[in-house]
Amino acid sequence: MEKRFDGLTDRQLLAVVDDALNALSDDRLRLPTAAEQLELLQECVRLAGRMQALQQQVAAAVDRSEAVWDERRTSARTWLAESMNLTPREAARIIAAGHGLTTFPVVGTAALGGAVLPVQAEAITGVLADLPKDFPDETVVQAQQLMVDFAQTHNSAELRRLTAHLVETLSPETADEIEAKRLERQERRAQAHRFLDFSNDGQGSVLIRGSLPVAAAEPLIRIVQAYAAAQKRGADRLDPLAEYVTPGMRRADGLVAMVDALGRQGVAPVHGGDRPRIVVTLSYDKLVKQCLDAGLGARLTRSGDPLPASVARRLLCDADILPVVLGGESEPLDVGRTQRLVTPPIRAALEVRDGGCVFPGCDKPPEACEAHHIIPWWAGGETSLQNLVLACPHHHGIVEPGRDPTADRWHVRLRDDGVPVVFPPRRVDPRQRPRVHARFTTRG
After folding, report:
1. Cβ contacts of 395-404, under 8 Å, gap ≥ 24
2. From CA 351, how far away is CA 390, in angstroms rounded?
């Protein structure tokens, strides 16, 4: 470090970096040649990587020191997500990456120095974490240096596939045995980490993200590919303006065709009191006038996303029509004390009103939620729309009241307009200020 920075605190040094970025991002052009433009881009990527490595290691240090718990009585992940408008997954990934860099300091030093990009470092620490635990310290250090050297010629995806080669280099006499054990650990880890997520990108698409063990994924891949291959075009293939379908688009069409086939065959299991279905919410007038003409008005019940008229018309060609009238007489939305379990009509109304878990910050969709009695059944609460909200299993446990009325717990209430409001316990907020999920503040 140059002497002119001696005596500056970390925050003061970051302020210097901030000022330099302000100067770099002004409107003046400093790129007279193409070669300089390429060099600047490479340097931007390298410096951004160094800053990201610093950010990750600071996040890991904060997590280890429990500074957030001392200051805010919450976890580092939760605080980082809320304070910087990150998702919990994004915050957790920053912290986990930082722990990887501090666990393997050779890699951490290389990342801070710009010799290894953050995505490469994340791949390297994943490979190193899978090495046998009985490797001596000097072997682990050797492994770190080998992987840092590999990063000069390999991208992150390629680095992740180097585990077997690394073991063979470090311990050739036991490589086969170690590799066999590694594959078993990998299978157990893949089973434990399997998941499937659906997230709305806010641009008219749903992003599908998941992970399956390779053996479990293979049948799915083959079936989707079979449906994709069956998506033959008709006369439209002769149209010069017809859409060019990429292999990825064809696989997406195959997945949709598979789901459609399951729905039409009626073999899908019952879920939430009814067979799986898409529910579209719109007024009768809009159904007759706007949607069937050219306007808007239809919305998907689960996500609240508006539908173009063309899609609504297509759905209406083969649709069941189920009136959901909140508080009306077309469906019994209040079963009082005669029945504890929520009926399908009440469940449908809850999904329309709440749109998912009502706990602020939770993104669990309606199908992943349970119906929570605000006043418990055992305490005389009724099974009615006015006494129910949707909550995911985790948050259901948090807001479910105990037998002790004086307990300091989270609780939920309904406003007069039907919007669920969550109140934190005094240990979280002494003033117990009400909190409302963002979906209710952004609804049109």
Report:
1. 395/357, 395/359, 395/362, 395/364, 396/369, 396/370, 396/372, 398/359, 399/359, 399/372, 400/372, 400/376, 401/376
2. 8
Give per-residue pLDDT as tens, 118-133: 999 999 999 898 888 8
In degrees and rounded to multiples of 5, residue 206 shows phi and psi of: -110, 125
Residue with tokens 């990934």: 93
Tokens 């909550």, located at residue: 391
Q: What are phi and psi of 208, to 5 degrees?
A: -105, 120
Instruction: Please report where in the chains the tokens 């999920």 appear, as a residue.
Output: 437
Integer Cα distance of 108 and 123 in angstroms: 12
Pairwise CA distance, residues 148 & 150, whole Å: 5
Q: How many whole angstroms separate alpha carbon 313 and alpha carbon 343?
A: 29
Best CA proximity match to 384, nearest among 351, 324, 342, 354 = 342
Does residue 219 sit in helix, strand or coil?
A: helix
The model carries a pTM of 0.55
For the stretch 97-106, what's the b/e string if a residue is b when 16 or more beta carbons lie within 10 angstroms of its beta carbon?
A: bbbbbeebeb
- The CA-to-CA distance between both ends of the chain, in Å, stands at 54
Instruction: Provide the Cα torsion 265, 267, 273, 277; round to 10°.
Output: -40
Residue 100 backbone phi and psi in degrees, to 5: -65, -40
CA-based nearest residue to 369, from 424, 306, 302, 304: 302
Determine contact, residues 253/261, Cβ cutoff 8 Å.
Answer: no
Q: Which of 138, 142, 129, 104 is nearest to 182 (CA)?
A: 129
Residue indicated by tokens 């439209």:
236
Q: Tell me the two tokens of residue 65.
A: 């020191």
Give the containing element (helix H, strand E) for 390.
Answer: strand 388-391
d(CA 225, CA 251): 6
Distance CA 144, CA 114 (A): 16
Residues 6+ apart with CB under 8 A from 9: none
Token output for 223: 């079936």
As given in the structure block, the two tokens for residue 100 are 């990887």
- Which of 25, 17, 110, 10 minimizes the C-alpha distance to 61? 10
Q: How many residues does the chain have?
A: 444
Q: What are 62-106's pLDDT values in tens digits?
A: 999 888 888 888 889 989 998 899 998 899 999 999 999 999 999
Q: Is the dihedral of CA 119, 121, 125, 128 positive or negative?
A: positive
Which token pair is 328? Answer: 């009306």
